[in-house]
Amino acid sequence: MSKSIDFQLFAPYNQEAVLIGSFSEWQPIPMKKDDKGYFRTEVKLEDGEYEYKFRVRSKSWFLEPDQWVYIVDPYATKVIDNSEQNGIICIKDGQKFVDTYVWQHDDKPLPQNHELVIYEMHIPSFGGGNYQQAIEKLDYLSDLGINAIQLMPVQEYAGEDNWGYLARYFFAAESSYGSTEELKHFIDECHGRGIRVFMDMMLNHSEQSSPLTQIDHNYWYHHEARDPQNSWGPEFNYEHYDENLDIKPAWNFAGDVVRFWIEEYHIDGIRYDAARQLANYDFMHWIVEETKKTAGSKPFYNIAEHIPDTPNITNFDGPMDGCWHDSFYYLVTPAIWGDSFDLEDLKKAIDCKLDGYMGVTNVINYLSNHDKERLMISLGERNIFDDAAFKKAKLGAVLVMTAIGLPMIWMGEEFGNSQNKQMEHPSEIDWSLLNNERNLGLLEYYKGLIQLRKNNPAFFTENVDFFHENSETKVFVYGRWNDEGSRVVVVANFSENYLAGYVVPEFPADGTWHEWTRDYDVEVKDRQLMIDLAEYEAQVFIN
């Protein structure tokens, strides 16, 4: 039995629009504009799937005045991403729906923001191509200790074989990775393992042929890039206010986007790509509040990619919960590579408060990410290979896992993947490396550090003290602690020299301390710790 289905297109200053679709044999169906700026029409449809699109007289400056253009519905939840570029509408029981997926793990408790250990993942590169293959590797992440996945873009983007940072259809899931049901199944399986899922979202810009650019470019976007050197596509204009309709159109669209993904796909956080280019704190405050209201009682985490990073984005009046701590990368890696050794830089990396940040969830620390070359690549460029490279990788792992902030691993970093970054035609990470003893050893090292971090409440605080440093031997010592008595001390050797019988004075307390990475006990007397410290080694002591 057919029922009337409403089709609508918001285009308040366009003169004319029609609907075409498989249900009309692609013949135009007139649409009437209401006083809110929506073109509307109703079509009687049986249950099923139908292809459709709109034809509208454009107001975009780069087209002829009132030129007819074909566009996909900007709110389409499925798109045939081929030369036809049609939206898909699904009808069941006379109602629009995305799919019939039934969630299995909504009642599973998930970690709070301060407990997170994050893994940045590109679906095709991680699992081999699609969501189902990624699901098959989730137990690997559980064993590693990961409890949050930062998904690289999964909104429908231009093309099929790239990282996806040019979103074309903001409500549709990238079809080359699998169906909407399979994406939900992936997220559900993550939740079943206690793993939260964050979405990488482009609210700064879109791909140049995205529907809104074709309907009325200057209604939605800035006429031209405000910072041409850092522009990746048409930039949404969050300053534009429509006095006639009393709305900020770009705000409304972005709000609809984030609410949809939280409600429909049960995501647990959003990374806002190019947040510095957004450059509108009022909008960012509002969008963060919208995410929290939509998520309700479940934990949600809003992350800014603001490069260079700044505490202004997270502190006091700052809109975001946290940001990518790019400074950590630039402060720590020169010491790991062996390019330089600056104790003050290391202190600022370990204690983000020295740069003005307030708390654990304000910064996300990393040794690499999709924008950086992997640590093994950077070491190889300096002719550092084999044992020396893996020792330095372990040293870096200790720093990222024990610094104030949340640690993030770029997929494969945990076992020393050494592939160059590939924005176009990215290949699967090289899992065969786990057949090598060194790579497997690095993976086990990461597992142990993650277990330590998740189980020691000292890491959930903003407490850190620096009580020993030696610029000649390149030894750097710091402690993490909480008020209940948990304490962790890191003794790091950044030199190429083996330090036998090295003495760390002013150790926090006498008594028996356990070293985590080598698994041995040591007695501290007169507040002096004496240990043998290998080259490029960090030892981690717990009380």
Plain-language structure description:
- With 543 residues, the protein is of the alpha/beta class.
- Among the domains are: 3-97, Immunoglobulins (Immunoglobulin-like), CATH 2.60.40; 464-542, Golgi alpha-mannosidase II (Immunoglobulin-like), CATH 2.60.40.1180.
- The strands form six sheets. The protein has an eight-stranded parallel barrel.
- β4 (32-33) and β5 (38-45) form a beta hairpin.
- CATH topology type of the domain at 3-97: Immunoglobulin-like
Quantity of strands, as a count? 28
| Share of helix, binned | 25-40%
Beta-strand level of the residues, as a percent range? 25-35%
Q: Per the principal axes of the C-alpha atoms, what is the gross shape?
A: elongated
Query: What is the averaged pLDDT score?
Result: 97
CATH superfamily heading of the domain at 3-97: Immunoglobulins
Please tally the helical runs, counting DSSP H or I stretches of 4 or more residues. 13
CATH class of the domain at 3-97: Mainly Beta
CATH architecture heading of the domain at 3-97: Sandwich
Query: Within the largest sheet, what's the order of strands?
Result: 11-12-15-16-17-18-19-20
Query: How many angstroms separate the termini?
Result: 71 Å
Low-confidence stretches: none
Radius of gyration: 26 Å
Domain Glycosyl hydrolase family 13 catalytic: 120-453
InterPro entries: A-amylase/branching_C, Alpha_amylase, Branching_enzy, GH, GH13_cat_dom, Glyco_hydro_13_N, Glyco_hydro_b, Ig-like_fold
Active site: 273 (nucleophile), 305 (proton donor)
Family: Belongs to the glycosyl hydrolase 13 family.
